[in-house]
Amino acid sequence: MTDLFLIASGLLGIATGIGHSLLGERNVLRPLFAEDASAVLRKGRMRELLRGVWHLPSLTWIVLGLALVQSGLAGNGSAIAATAGTIFVLSGLANWMVLKSFHIGGAMAVATGCLAFAAVLTGA
User: What are phi and psi of 38, to 5 degrees?
Assistant: First the structure.
């Protein structure tokens, strides 16, 4: 039996990861590298390191999202749902704490985690 909370959580997690990667590249990394304000950022290796570190959470969220969708389709995912729920909620809360304000990415991460927890509570 499929679990719609897990599938919805997974799809939202995938969207969060893709959005974080695409929008971050366009709105954060490219402008940051274009300014060339720091000697550190003039080094190609440092730019690639920063780019990799930026995209790592995106990749993590996409992989977790895929695992949630697969678990939802298989109908057996309470362990992955609890793990993913914790990661997504903490990611979203950390986003808000660092930015000291609301951010759509944080909201999407928290919503993803809440859907995963709903799957656990309903017996996924």
Answer: -120, 145
Tokens representing residue 10 in the block: 């997974």
Q: What is the mean pLDDT of residues 58-85?
A: 90
| Residue whose entry in the numeric block shows the structure tokens 């990749």 | 59
Mean pLDDT in residue range 9-20:
96
pTM comes to 0.80
In the three-class reduction of DSSP (H, G, I as helix; E, B as strand; rest coil), residue 25 is classed as helix
Q: Is 34 exposed, middle or buried (0-12, 13-18, 19+ CB in 10 A)?
A: exposed
Q: How far is CA 34 from the centre of its chain?
A: 26
Q: Find the angle CA(44)-CA(45)-CA(47) to the nearest 5 degrees.
A: 65
Q: Which residue has the tokens 């990394």?
A: 29
The Cβ of residue 107 has, within 10 Å, a number of other Cβ atoms equal to: 14
- In the numeric block, which tokens belong to residue 106? 């944080």
Burial class (CB in 10 A: 0-12, 13-18, 19+), 104: exposed
